[in-house]
Every structure is written in structure tokens, then in C-alpha cells.
Amino acid sequence: MCLNWVYDEKISERVIRRADPCAFTKEDLMASMSVARKALGDLIKAFKPLADRVLVERFAAETKTKGGIMIPDKAQGKVLEATVLSTGPGGRDSKGNLIPMTVRAGDHVLLPEYGGTKVVVDEKEYHIFREADILGKFDQ
């Protein structure tokens, strides 16, 4: 199905038209984009890593010191703490037995400075690490 932007003089507005006489207004398009964004957010919640991988969301960087001084983006550095969103079932040993994960969803963990795979969904950054790459977890 081909969708094209056209200017409709009758309604003085740009609309998307399909091959059939049905047309979408800007409001229809914005509503469908909102639904798509919600679906992407639900997609991350439903994402289940494989094997011994862990999906995490890094904490936000501090933008202001305790004294109230603003920290520029370049000087903020990488945040090494994150919250675990979901985990895989675990790795396998040489005999094929399942090795259970030691981290769970909701855990507060310490990450290495480098490594992992960055995943961006709806302008939000997530990272996937192997459990062995995670340096430790904080008691809650």
C-alpha cells in the first residue's frame, strides 16, 4: 500500500492519501504515532534476553552538583549504575545443565565502563550485558 502526502485544497491541510478514497488527517497520523510509541514501550517490557544476557537501564547522570553548579554534558561521564529490567534463563555448563542467573529484574547493579550492546527504543537508551560482565549488585 502506498501512502503519499498531498495538499487537499478543500480542507486546506496536508493529508496522507491511500489508493482508495480514504484519507488520514494530521490528527489521525499523530494518534497512530502515539499508539506506535506505546507499543515500543511495551516491546521493551516484553523483551526477554537469551541465555545469560541481562537488559538494563542506566541511571540518569547528575546534571547539577550538591552546591548547585550545572555540570556540562561532556563532563558528566558515563553512569556505571543501572536497574535490571529483565534477564535470560541463564547460561549452560559443559554438560548442558542450566546455570541460574544471580541477578533479577529490579536489581541495582554496577556495570563496566565499556562493553554491552546499546539498544535505543523511542529515544530511550537500554543496554544488554552478559551476566559475567556485570561487576556486582547492590543490596537493597
Detailed description of the structure:
Strand 2 and strand 3 form a beta hairpin. The protein has 2 domains: 4-45, no CATH class; 48-138, 10 Kd Chaperonin, Protein Cpn10, Chain O (Roll). The protein is an alpha+beta fold and 140 residues long. The longest helix has 21 residues, at 26-46. It starts with a strand and ends with a strand. Helix content is 18%, strand content 34%. It has helices at 26-46, 73-76, and strands spanning 4-8, 13-17, 23-24, 53-58, 81-87, 91-92, 98-99, 108-110, 117-121, 124-130, 136-138. The strands form 3 sheets. Strands 9-10-4-5-8-11 form a 6-stranded antiparallel beta sheet. The model has no long low-confidence stretch (mean pLDDT 78). It is built from 2 helices and 11 strands, in the order E-E-E-H-E-H-E-E-E-E-E-E-E. The radius of gyration is 22 Å and the shape is flat. Keywords: Chaperone. This is 10 kDa heat shock protein, mitochondrial. It comes from Loa loa. Belongs to the GroES chaperonin family. GO terms for molecular function: ATP binding; metal ion binding; protein folding chaperone; protein-folding chaperone binding; unfolded protein binding.
